């Protein structure tokens, strides 16, 4: 079992990552944690911010009571600040919010108000520091991620295929596009560590086709590799069929059904990973308690799709899956950007 203490090498990694996010002497920063956050995360942030000369404070919120019928994981939508008006007002006064909550504030309902005030968000995902050390943000990834986002914005259609049988069509005209290399210096910007992905949120009635997840593809909500294939039929953005006679398929069906919410079956976002430091195989080497599994959203060349909330299609739910796949080919208006799981051209 890995220990969680403030190692000097991790303080150094946090210092470099925070500096890459534009934090230096005199920067006003708020660290936001909650009672179930890894204590070492706020400790490492504080030590690194002190070294950088930032003016910082730490807010520790109580982790909310559970209200869902099943465990809620990997949402990026912490509700720890829900109803905490004094906290929201405090965060509007700083330049940078360093987020070490369990689920992250990226999709929190309160974030847009804080963002409008000019604060930028750096979410450090709830991973063991060893994982963060290995996936430390690098400046050179910035231009490549920006290029991928622009390619998405310029395209009208995404098509995803695989040798396993995936054949998915997505109309991405006017779809909000984004992503992060793991850092931002823009007021109101959002970044997370591990970073390195390009994605978009398809609008209503824009996703059709078939997705076949194969052994070795990943269910990040369950923090597991698939052992058996699952075939999904997608009609007008929603999963209408989950085919498979296996534990993997049963778990998927039962978890979605537990929400008793049709929106949980809708697609949230689609995209691909860009980070060469993120490794598909590394989850096999960690205990589940050591990972939040955000590294695997970003490994270079994956196809990432997710179910659950899509605010741009007016769909909201706590039910959520992040599902990165290997060996897919991704076309944008016929141009191949990922071939059989390998980034192409200037993205590579």
Care to describe what's here?
The structure is a single chain. α1 packs across α2. The longest helix is centred in the N-terminal third of the chain and has 14 residues. With 348 residues, the protein is an alpha+beta fold. 47% of the residues are buried. A hairpin with a 2-residue loop joins β13 and β14. The strands form four sheets. An eight-stranded antiparallel sheet has the order 14-13-10-6-5-18-19-20, with helices on one face. A five-stranded parallel sheet has the order 2-1-3-4-8, with helices on both faces. The mean pLDDT is 96. The chain has two domains: 127 residues, 3-Layer(aba) Sandwich (Rossmann fold), CATH 3.40.50.2300; 192 residues, no CATH class. Helices cover 21% and strands 28% of the residues. The protein is globular, with a radius of gyration of 19 Å. It has seven helices and 20 strands. The protein starts with 7 loop residues before the first helix and ends in a 5-residue tail after the last strand.
Strand order of the largest sheet: 14-13-10-6-5-18-19-20
The total of beta strands comes to 20
Mean pLDDT: 96
Structural class call reads alpha+beta
Give the topology string: H per helix, E per strand: HEHEHEHEHHEEEEEEEEEEHEEEEEE
State the oligomer.
single chain
Q: What spatial form do the alpha-carbon principal axes imply? A: globular
* SS field, number of helical segments: 7
Main beta sheet strand tally, sense and closure: 8 strands, antiparallel
Domains (count)? 2
- Share of residues in strands: 25-35%
What are the low-pLDDT stretches, counting only 5+ consecutive residues below 50? none
For the termini, the CA-CA separation is 35 Å
Query: Residue share in helices?
Result: 10-25%
* CA-based gyration radius: 19 Å
